[in-house]
Design goal:
- The chain is mostly helical.
- The protein has one domain: Serum amyloid A protein (Topoisomerase I, Chain A, domain 4), CATH 1.10.132.
- It is 74% helix and 0% strand.
- It has four helices and no strands.
- It has helices spanning 2-49, 55-68, 71-87, 96-110.
- α2 (55-68) packs antiparallel against α3.
- The relative contact order is 0.15.
- Residues 1-18 form the signal peptide.
- Keywords: Acute phase, HDL, Signal.
- Belongs to the SAA family.
């Protein structure tokens, strides 16, 4: 009887833990989805603004907004930022300095620091 009771309690605990894990996984994925949306919005704002020397600001802002969503948003921002820099050829020696500066702005935003640190003078206030 003790064995059956112990097995029942163990299975109950595992079931509750697995539901918590499942819920946390869904939350992480939702944060990642929203964070990717934040990154996309920052990208389109950058294209729309078409303002000289504003790319670092938009990098920092996209990463900042995504990271505010939680661990999933921060993860999405890091993956998107790293992939973007890799695909632009920075890892092959082209534009290394610019890529390093972009990555610094990305890390700045993900760490929760104010993206306005990179905001150029004269950028439209709507951004």
């Amino acid at each position: 009887m003790k064995l059956v009771t112990s097995l029942f309690l163990l299975s109950l605990v595992l079931c509750v833990n697995s539901q918590s894990w499942f819920r946390e996984s869904l939350d992480f994925l939702d944060q990642a989805r929203q964070g990717a949306g934040d990154m996309w919005r920052a990208y389109w704002d950058m294209r729309e603004a078409n303002f000289k020397n504003s790319d670092k600001y938009f990098h920092a802002r996209g990463n900042y907004d995504a990271a505010k969503r939680g661990p999933g948003g921060a993860w999405a921002a890091e993956v998107i930022s790293d992939t973007r820099e890799f695909l632009q050829g920075a890892s092959f020696g082209r534009n290394v300095e610019d890529s390093m500066a972009d990555q610094e702005a990305n890390r700045w935003g993900r760490s929760g620091k104010d993206p306005n640190h990179f905001r150029p003078a004269g950028l439209d206030p709507k951004y």
